[in-house]
Structure formats: structure tokens, C-alpha cells
Amino acid sequence: MSATDGQKIAMRGAGYYSANTVGAKYVIDKVADLVVDAVARMPRLANGHPFAIADFGAADGGTSMDMMRRLVGAVRETEPHRAISITYTDLPHNDFSTLFRLSQGLLGPSTDMPLADTPALYIFGSGTSFYRQVLPDNSLSFGFSATAMHWISKRPCMIADHVQAVGASNAEREQFRTQALRDWETILLARARELRSGGRLALANFCIDEEGHYLGHTTAVDMFDCFARHWRDLLRAGRISETEYVNATFQQFYKTPQEFAAPFRDPASSVSQAGLRLEKMFTMVTPCPYAEAFRTHRNAQDFARAYVPTLRSWSETVFANALDSSRPANERSAIIDDFYNAYEADVARAPDEHRMDYVHCVTQIVKL
Amino acid sequence: MSATDGQKIAMRGAGYYSANTVGAKYVIDKVADLVVDAVARMPRLANGHPFAIADFGAADGGTSMDMMRRLVGAVRETEPHRAISITYTDLPHNDFSTLFRLSQGLLGPSTDMPLADTPALYIFGSGTSFYRQVLPDNSLSFGFSATAMHWISKRPCMIADHVQAVGASNAEREQFRTQALRDWETILLARARELRSGGRLALANFCIDEEGHYLGHTTAVDMFDCFARHWRDLLRAGRISETEYVNATFQQFYKTPQEFAAPFRDPASSVSQAGLRLEKMFTMVTPCPYAEAFRTHRNAQDFARAYVPTLRSWSETVFANALDSSRPANERSAIIDDFYNAYEADVARAPDEHRMDYVHCVTQIVKL
């Protein structure tokens, strides 16, 4: 993964990400049942080895904190005195300070005991990309990742007249698919080296499901089409240049369940040869919590003001980085603000049309 | 260690610390010989265990990077394929992103291969204070710490008419000493749990040496007296209040070699009972690189402009946090700027009087 590409996937800091990604937490809470069940069936470790957990692409760790409590509880139920480590991984520029503060109970009010106060639990951060090996060979008992591996390691091309592969031309989309399938193999082979025999992965990744649904595309309106349309409006209004228009390209690809499963279905694949087996796979749609809340409160303004910042939390850097770096910073901020304000006005005008349902493919993988 | 106390020991970010602490690197380079020698004599690990290294209170990791290269080289000389982990620890608010970027070669030009590109080397951060156990029991092969453990876990009192324990009243100083000795035991017992049998610590800590020398006090002029005098000038000029004057109290204590050695000299102490033994101890004075450079270039302005920012890098938060939080931010900045500007003018006027020689006590400790 190139450093410069990596830099562009920055998130906004200090808990902003977690607070605005309520939906992400819903997904993780659902996956937690699977995780706890898997842990209960795992082989007992030899003495002197910690039960090593990793969260790949953890951001500030906020959305997975409750799951980690349950996971730690499940390990301790079988082995009360087993040392446990949790390694939170993300790109180097991630806000690890917020992650450590959250785990130590130093941010915001909480009635729960801080995760970091659990006896014999050791928490680490790693700034190593999940496209590389993050942990030593045969050391990982349980790897987890949620809503992270749709970020591919590099953009094979810019998407000329859209912002995401879902709206790209066929030729563009095939380049993204090729990159994404290569990346998936790279990710799995790195995890295969890290996992102990009997160790498991539980991954909840964005996908295109069996019905063709994907993030923000479960009804007639498509969220990425909205992004593209508002970005195109800025081009037409002369606010941004043609180059800036084209450069807004999400470094993402949503695989289908078939694509997730492919390396496992071929016994001769490098992934199968490395000992990885697909134990479970299913897709799930998590209803957009903001749209659901709107069905009750029916206040279009409130909905728009809650909904668009969520989109902004993970999309802003893509648009901000598309702008010419020679523009003064305040000019860039103004363009980006106008972009999201226009989107927000759109949502306020037709609130029933907008929703960002999450569409995930959950895979549970074991290393033989 | 209380969170709020911890917050006050913040450093300025993005490589500022390393770039301005040339002296710290000199110390570590000298200690590296000791470290490499110790590693060569360490017992071979069982298969499947990484050689685990930790840097306690690592800041951005910049000053110890070359030593880490040598240490990794020394391990690989004996065991070419041994997996190695390095855990960089500091308080949660530490700039771990800069640390990861530095190790991955993403900051500044360097002709060296990035440390993180070493095969089978795994780099982690930990936001757990070194007053707690950071790593699992019996997992640590080599622990290192430089110029970090003079920060005590809490301030037992404010120092009424000075800024550091070296200039405190006897009664105040005894309170600081009691806290520091208790902290030293806490640190050692936590490390005793983490270390493998045969594992070692190499610690370079600020001290008061056999001649009564300490940081910034190796000639007639005392650096902490200078801080205190300039702070008192602000009180006399009515710029700061009496409370603000008193609140500027470094949460630090410099122990003597005897105090460092005491827990090891008593076979009944909890530290001795935990299996720790003091193998080596010596003090060393590292000449202030800025003062040494001045002896050649003789440009007083240049010296003052290089020297005072170094002091500022580790002292600023103490003075900034002493100011009443109800003051507007720009007013606080102006006071702090004036404070260091006055110090700088002082240095420029009498450059031969100022130098911040480092005075360290180096200890090498083994766990039986």
C-alpha cells in the first residue's frame, strides 16, 4: 500500500468517527454473537501464550469496544487467568491517542469499567497496514475487522464520470475489481501467517449482496449517485475544474459474496494452501439508524443534520483531496462545505428518499 | 498515575521533540554499546516466541531509532530468523502517529531503510503508563528507557517558591522524594512481571550524580533557577497571579545513584524478591550540544535561538498549565512566549553561562 494513497484515507479525529457511525456499531454488535460462539469452541492455548486478538482497521476503536468486552469475557469464561492482548491496527496517521484514551475511559462519561482496566489485558496499537503482516507468525488467536477492507491498496485509475466503482464505466470497474481481488488475497495470506492453528477471523465487509444492494443503495435512490451529482453540479457551476471533478474517486471496491468466497472454493489457491477455510458466510443489511429515527420523529431538518455528517465523516477526505492543492485552504473548505450543504438541503427537501443502509458480507474463517 | 496529571506531561507533536533533543540521542547512542553487549549474552528463546523489546516512555521514537537498529541487528546476529517485536510505550496522548510514520520512513528524508521494513519485525504502540504492567507476564526480553522516568506519577505538593524539586524547600523536597522512591519500586515491580527469566532492562535516567550535578546544573548557573527567576519576574510584573506562580511545578524528581540502587541492595525488598538484580550502574554527563557548538561558532544569537526551543520542548506544558484556564488562549500564549523570549534574551546576553548538560544514571538490570 503506498503511503501517499494511504494518507488520503484519513478520518476526522477525537471520537468524531465513532460518534457519527452508529450504524457501524449495530453491525459489530450483531457479529458479536458469532464471535463469542467461535471463541467458546477454540482450542485451549499452551501455557505462557496470551490469547491474542486483533482489530484490523480499528479507527478509534469505539465501535468495537462493547464487542471486545464480550470477547474478553468469553475467553475468561473458559480460561479465567489467561492473559489477553488486543492489537488495534490502522494506518499510521490514525488517531491512536483517541483509541488509547477511549479504552482507558478518559473520554466522555461512561458507567462501564474501562476496557483497559481488565486484569491481565494488554492493549496495543499498530500503524502497519493490513496489507502487510502486522503480528508475528502463528501468534494470533482471533482476528476481527469491520467495515474496513473495502478500502483497496491503491486506485488503479480515476473514475472519469462518477466517484465510486459502483458507478464507473465497465472498463474502469474491471480495473478496480482486479485490484480488489488481488488485495483480498494479500490480506488473507498475511492473516494466514499471523493466525495460530485453530485461530479464527470474523470479518464484516461492505459488499454487493445477492440482490445487488450495497451501502446507500437498497432503495431507488443511490447515495453514490447523489455524491456524484452534487460534485458534478460544482463542475457545472465552475466551482471546480475538470481535473478536480475526475480526481474525486473513492479508493474502494465492494466485492460480491462469490468474490469473497472464490479463494476458498479453489483448493489449489494460495489461500487454501495456506490453511485457511471459510466456515461461515452470510450477507446482512443494517437499516440506516438516522432514516429509521426519521420515520418516528418526521423532522426533515433534524434528519438531514444528523445524516449528512455521518456521510461526511468517511467521505470528506476524498473530495477535499480531489481539490487542487494550490487553492488556499479556506477556499477548499468553502467548496467542501457547500458540497455537503447542498447534499443536506437535498435530504431536507426529500427526506424519505435518503437512507444509508449498510450491506455487509460476514465471513468466518479458520486456519487449520 | 492519574489521568489529569498525565495530561500535563504532553510534548509538542510531529517530530518536534526528536529534532530538538539532540542531547537525548547522544545519551542513547552511548547506551547502545551496553545494550548490544547485553543482548549478545542473552539466552536463546524457545521456538515460537518473539524477541520482545520495549521502549518505555518513547515519545516519537526518533531518538532511539538508531539504537533499535543496532539492537535488532544484534538479535539477528545470534538468531537470523527470530521474530522481533518492538513496543513503544508512552502516555495515551503521545503522538503515536508520528512514531509510526518515523518507523515507516514516512517523515523526512533518510537514506536508511525504514526500521519497519526489517523482515519479521513487528512494531506496536502502547498508551499504557509505565507505572502499570504494559506487557504480558514473562514476555519481555529487553526493556529500554531513556530520559523518561524522572516524571513521577503525581505531584505530592506544589513547590511554593521554585519550579523543580532541586530548588524546593526541604519539606517539599522530602515529599517529592517519597513519591519518587515509591514510583521507582512500582516501575521495577511492573517490569519484573513483564520480563522473561534472563531478560534485561537498560535504563538511562536523569539523576543527581556523585558530584551533585544534574540536568542544567554542572557549572555555576542552574537552569531550573533560571526558569524560576523568569517565572518570578512575571509575578513581580503583575503578568501572572500568585496561584499561577506556585502552580508551575515540574512533576519530576532526580534520584541519586544510591536511591536507584537501594531496592537492589536489600535482599528482602519486594524488588529483590521479584528476581531483579542490578548488574551495572554508572553516571554520565553528556555535554550540551548547543553550548558545545557555540564554543566553535561564537554567535550568541544563534546559540540562544537553538538552545531555548530545546528547553521549551519539554518544559512548556508545565508553565502553560500553571496559567489560569479562564484566561483566553491568546493571552496564555503571549505570556508563555514572553517567558521564553526573556530566557532567550538572557542567554544571548551571557551565552557562556548557559548550558544544559545531561546528567544520567545508567542501570542495567537482569531478571533471574
Q: How is the main sheet of chain A built? A: 7 strands, mixed
How would you describe the shape of chain A? globular
**Oligomeric nature of the chains:** homodimer
What would you report as the Rg of chain A, rounded to the nearest angstrom? 21 Å
Number of strands of chain A: 7
What is the CATH fold-level name of chain A? Rossmann fold
| Alpha carbon gap, first and last residue of chain A | 28 Å
Tally of separate helices of chain A? 13
The level-1 CATH class of chain A: Alpha Beta
Q: What's the CATH superfamily of chain A, by name?
A: Vaccinia Virus protein VP39
Quote the beta fraction of chain A: 15-25%
Task: Give the domain tally of chain A.
Answer: 1
User: Which structural class do you get from the secondary structure elements of chain A?
Assistant: alpha/beta
Series of H and E elements of chain A: HHHEHEHEEHEHHHHEHHHE
> Largest interface, with Cβ-Cβ < 8 Å?
A-B, 34 and 34 residues
Question: What would the average pLDDT of chain A be, to the nearest integer?
Answer: 92
Q: Roughly what percent helix of chain A?
A: 40-55%
